[in-house]
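dumping this here before i forget
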Amino acid sequence: MLRALRAYPTLLRIGFAEAVAYRAELLVWMLTTTMPLVSLALWSAVAAAAPVGRFTQQGFAAYFLATLIVRQLTGSWLVWQMNQEIRSGSLSQRLLKPIHPLIAYSAENIAALPLRALLSAPIALIALFAVERPAVGAGALPIWAASLLGAWLINFFTGAAMGALAFFLESSTALFELWLVAFMLLSGYLIPLELFPPVLAKVAHALPFRYTMAYPVEVVTGLIQGSEALYDLAIQWAYVAITFALALLAWRAGTRRFSAYGG
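structure:
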């Protein structure tokens, strides 16, 4: 761990240089995460006549602009990267290095955040000046920061666990695409969860998808506050621990098989 901590700043610099070098691919990836803008147009039209639950037109604008920002800051492409490297055999080079590959992968993902933030900054300014300002206290900002980190970690470790399935399957991206479908439907990415029927809303609140999207959005838009926000933060970080354990188990089992076949 000490070696990893010393090497991490260098890994971040290398990752940032790669993100800049492949900025076109990064831009294409970011543009594929703009579905909240479509949802914003649809729900704003619905709310034109009357509010939908707690949401006015400006309320929907605040929610979906926050959704777009959270998605930019917490997404991870690790599952596709791992599949490519496992199939090509280039993962062998990572296994020979003294830093755990998952630590190197995390640095590469985090290093792209400044470029994503550049895209998110104009959206944040629009949200600040053009839409209804939610009643969010200063105490919510640390919770929101922790929720963003937790959402990113759940996405990263889920990607690592599913990426490691490529040690056993020809490709695990199809399974991850099923996860993405569930994410789209149950995370609050396309529809605020409080607009779900009560039974489905309870199911969505119990699953990890909410804690990768709706929970950070609800914190920053003031939909949840105080003890409720802290309670949900504890649940989110429990999911961080669970996905971390699953990622390590899948990685260790997969690399043993990879080595046995001369990868």
